[in-house]
Amino acid sequence: MDESHIPLRLLPRDSSMPRDENLGPIWLAVSTTFLFLLLVTTALRLWCRIGRRNVGWDDTTIAIAAVMAAVQYSFGAMQLPYGNGRHRIYLSEHDYQMINLWGWYGQLFYFTSMTFLKVSICCLVLRIKSERVLRIIIYTIIAGVVVTNMGVVVLLFEECQPAGFWRGKAAKCWPNKIRIYWIYATIAHSVVTDLVLSLIPLTVIWKVKIPSKRKAMITCLMSLGLIATGFGIARAASLGVSEDDLSWTFCIVAIWSNLELFLGILAANLALSRAIYAFFHDKAVATTKGISNPSSSGYLSSRLRGITPGHRRMTSETRSSNSDIPLEPGIKKTTEFTWREDGNGQQSSSASNDDRGEVENSRL
Predict the structure, then answer these.
(1) Most exposed residue of 91, 126, 185, 302, measured as fewest CB within 10 angstroms of its CB?
(2) Residue 2 forms part of a structural domain
(3) Domain of 227?
(4) 254-257: long-range contacts (C-beta < 8 A, 24 or more apart)?
């Protein structure tokens, strides 16, 4: 048999050759776990915000980011049957080309998802506190995020003619250093903006008159994004300009990239975990006590004997616009309605007002 047709794994291994290892299962386990968590938390966040009729731009953009992340994950999964995570020397030319093809599509959705994630975090910060100077800072950050991340998308389309670096010699391409160095700049910008976006809400939280333990808990939740930033730094360290073994090196980059993106979305959702918990807790208590709110059509359930909607009034300084975080103690007014129906169909109702000074619990 001609030695050139013998599979490489059957030939004696040269000591200079890398071991035939496979990082694909690691990518699959890590990515699948965090994708599941981000989809669940995103669904709970949207359920809570829709239930409270308090959907904002931060919710819309995080939903888009989650969808884009799921699509990007699917392209990564399509690379695995072709041997992504193994060294190029053990792959056929066709398999290597298919890995780079799906990787190219995956990068398009990765950087688009990252853009919407950062915009969502910026919008959330503006919901917590919105001042003129802060708005200028946030809008500047958003502009930088769009330019850096979407700039990579533009480069992916323009660096080769026809588009797609996976075509190899069939395409005329710029040096890949241009794209890699742009990604380095994108990561550097991301690290700086993550620090700024984490510090801004923390300065607000520590001015709120709430127990120190609660401040510490909220601080930890809102600092989770910095862990994702650390994975972004690891992604930068694993990048390289060499194109000799992309099936191996880019799989390592993909693991760090997914940790950065998926954990970033997860952290953005967990920052609202108190509000999510309160929503479902209050709903469970209301169901247990036989209390119901008016339905979307405006009618009440005829099976219930009583309803108790509450109306709250707080000073304008208490809560920033559309925010889930009360910033100062306020006066809460509660109006209680009781509807009763006896066996003869007789109906009666009563109402009572209760004004009392009360420190509102902070819900993030």
Answers:
(1) 302
(2) no
(3) 19-277
(4) 254/27, 254/31, 254/76, 254/103, 254/106, 255/23, 255/26, 255/27, 255/30, 255/31, 256/231, 256/232, 257/110
Same domain, 232 and 343: no
Please answer whether residues 116 and 145 qualify as being in contact, where contact means their C-beta atoms are separated by less than 8 angstroms.
no
- Position 363 pLDDT exceeds 50: no
Alpha helices in the chain (DSSP H): 24-51, 57-79, 93-128, 132-158, 177-205, 212-222, 224-238, 246-270, 273-288
* Dist. CA 48–CA 274, nearest whole Å: 11
Which string of b and e fits 180-209 if b means at least 16 CB within 10 Å?
bebbeebbebbbebbeebbebbeebbeeee
How many Å separate Cα 301 from the centre of its chain?
A: 37
Q: Measure the CA–CA gap between 66 and 112, rounded to whole angstroms.
A: 11
Separation of alpha carbons 350 and 266, rounded Å? 45
Q: Is the pTM of this model over 0.85?
A: no
Distance from C-alpha of 186 to C-alpha of 170, rounded to nearest angstrom: 29
Neighbour tally for 95: CB within 10 Å:
18
Residue in this structure with the two tokens 């998802």, named with its chain if needed: 113
3-class DSSP state of 305: coil
Residue whose tokens read 């600092």: 223
pLDDT at residue 75 is higher than 90: yes
Q: Indicate the Cα dihedral angle 33, 249, 245, 76, nearest 10°.
A: 30
Regarding whether 112 and 24 lie in a shared domain, the answer is yes
How far is residue 282's CA from residue 287's CA, in Å, rounded to a whole number? 9
Distance CA 96, CA 104 (A): 12
Token pair recorded at residue 198: 């984490």
How large a percentage of the chain has pLDDT more than 70?
70
Say whether both 260 and 340 belong to one domain: no
Q: What is the pLDDT of residue 323?
A: 52
- The DSSP symbol for 340 reads E
Residue 121: closest CA among 278, 318, 263, 271: 271
Residue 286 is predicted with a pLDDT of: 65
